[in-house]
Input
Amino acid sequence: MSSVASECAFITGGRILDPFRSSLTPKCVQCLICVQAWLRQEIKPICVEESLEFLEKIELEMANSGRSSSIVDL
Output
């Protein structure tokens, strides 16, 4: 078992993980890289009012065109 600084452990640029250098499975490495991307992602606020207005507009258009709505009340 070896220890490395956390800054180095998750830097993906220029590093190659192979069976001799890592005991992580490919699936585990893929998961870690995805989590890293999610954590670094910019957080954007969600405007519920705009989304609700958009969905209500679609529902009205579908009702006026004679098609049944696929939106289900929970």
Observations:
- The chain has a mean pLDDT of 73.
- The chain has one domain: 1-66.
